[in-house]
Amino acid sequence: MSDALDASLRLARAQTALVKRFDASLGGLHGVSLADFTTLLRLGQAPGSRMRRVDLAEALGLTASGVTRGLAPLERIGLVTRETDARDGRVAYAALTDTGRARLTDMLATAEQIAAEIFAAPPWSKEDIGQMSALLTRLGGTGLPGHTSTP
Amino acid sequence: MSDALDASLRLARAQTALVKRFDASLGGLHGVSLADFTTLLRLGQAPGSRMRRVDLAEALGLTASGVTRGLAPLERIGLVTRETDARDGRVAYAALTDTGRARLTDMLATAEQIAAEIFAAPPWSKEDIGQMSALLTRLGGTGLPGHTSTP
DNA sequence: CTGATATGCTTGAGCAGTCAAGGAGGTGGC
DNA sequence: GCCACCTCCTTGACTGCTCAAGCATATCAG
């Protein structure tokens, strides 16, 4: 097997382990999945904490229907609201509520801690993490808004 | 956001892109998913091309029920058979059929090509790939049987 | 104004995995 | 020999996504 195929299979494997870990902690402490958290985080980064649902789908690498289904429970528990566009009757916005913004802050702290734990044992150097992130960026398309490493 | 959290989210994002790409090509050419291919590949690496289903689950990072459901269609299309253990009536083996072994060879060629394409543009160096694989290994647990890079 | 086409979103059906429960078989204490 | 317990595997119910279809709204050509 080539190195390239080996790396691909490892990527798939590593992701399931990582997602499980985030889901466990985020779920236990805040009742949300990693996918939920990523959605809220992305919304929080948008101007006015709101995005058109189709743009949110694009940003998250999901389909529009995935966003509809994923947002439903977040609306139900009051972290996100639906807003309409006065100009264009087709579009609906997803927006963070005040509660959502507050809860997101807590979740972010938890997520940071999990990430720190994951990359702590066996000890990762700052360079390792930066390198890996750079390598993954080449694979995953644009995905996240530009993140400049904190040197 | 810390580098560690950033890298984690990129990992998740990169995986879905990568899986989509493998699924598209493997599905189109051979009618199997990346998960199917990984299962067959792992079976092919085992002595006698057979494994206890519980060990297969462990090797693939799945639960036993995940293996039951995943193998069902592969058995139905004749790539895998179920074998029993004369000594222990509880255990069932999953084994590659001759057809399965032959088809796996073709799939492997396809998968190698996809992996090569993925890591070709923008050009990845052999060192980049090795580095990334090493970094991912730290995250994903053991996962694959030891793979020593081809230098 | 009307009809054709494009866009935004939701919905039904399906797939791949999870967990919890349960059945069938094996093992050890007494 | 028997009963308690353990292991292997499957099944039912659920989640989180996909695709295909459909509805509502917008836009553009004539």
TrEMBL record, chains A, B:
InterPro entries: HTH_MarR-typ, MarR/SlyA-like, WH-like_DNA-bd_sf, WH_DNA-bd_sf
SMART domains cross-referenced by the UniProt entry: HTH_MARR (SM00347)
One function term, GO molecular function aspect: DNA-binding transcription factor activity
Pfam family name, one: MarR_2
Record GO biological process: response to stress
UniProt superkingdom: Bacteria
Name assigned to this protein: MarR-family transcriptional regulator
HTH marR-type domain location: 1-141
